[in-house]
UniProtKB/TrEMBL annotation:
One BP annotation, GO: L-amino acid transport
Annotated protein name in UniProt: Amino acid/amide ABC transporter ATP-binding protein 2, HAAT family
Source species: Roseovarius lutimaris
Keywords: Amino-acid transport, ATP-binding, Nucleotide-binding, Transport
PANTHER family from the UniProt entry: ABC TRANSPORTER ATP-BINDING PROTEIN, HIGH-AFFINITY BRANCHED-CHAIN AMINO ACID TRANSPORT ATP-BINDING PROTEIN LIVF
Domain of life: Bacteria
Single annotated GO MF: ATP binding
Similarity remark: Belongs to the ABC transporter superfamily.
ABC transporter domain boundaries: 4-229
Amino acid sequence: MSLLHLSNVAAFYGPSQALFDVSLDLEEGEVLALMGRNGMGKTTTIKVIFRLLKHRSGRVMFDGRDLDPLPSHRAARLGLGLVPEGRRCFANLTVRENLMAAARPGPWDIARVHRFFPRLGERTAQNAASLSGGEQQMLAIGRALMTNPRVLVLDEATEGLAPVVRQEIWAAIARLKSETGLSLIVVDKSLRELSGVADRAVILEKGRSVWSGGFAGLTPEVRDRYLGV
Ligand code: ATP
């Protein structure tokens, strides 16, 4: 059984159906790219994984457990870490306070986060609001690492950042892959960068997982059909 397993998931916002049939598997130590054009259901799928939205049918399993009845804080305790779209750090808390608020026992502590992102160490006493966009993104990743997750999900982690800062975030994702055994799900618009770091991709189209496979299989036809604008 995969570490994380979704099969035939359907989910609604009130009366409106956002997911119709989403299936995906994440293996231990794997980096999975979750792709698809705007509004196809990537963030909604992540919300379902984190129990921020309950699915109406289908199955969500993490580490052999059915996540259906779990409240979201329990899902986090089980080892699911989220770097949400828009980063959402606590603006009026310091870098250190943001990190410590998330701390759970495990190999990642504040010293290790500072080694991983030295800039966070240099800014430990600053309010999160005073950080640059890239630094806030590092803080959002650092905060998720402080929960010592087994699966880390990054939703649009490079969005709205300058190109040089984006490269720093991609480099950090690559280091997470090579230096830790963390399983990752990465949502991003950059196919080129994703193909450099991810082992496999799943493509969503109108609330359905319509394609999955290795990047070698992402032919121009597949890209035009599901990812083109
Ligand atoms: P993007 O790349 O734009 O973030 P996405 O693939 O993450 O897109 P979702 O945000 O999951 O897509 O949206 C899937 C569908 O659900 C869209 O039709 C969207 O309009 C709808 N939707 C998303 N959030 C809500 C909400 N809070 N209430 C109602 N409908 C929503």
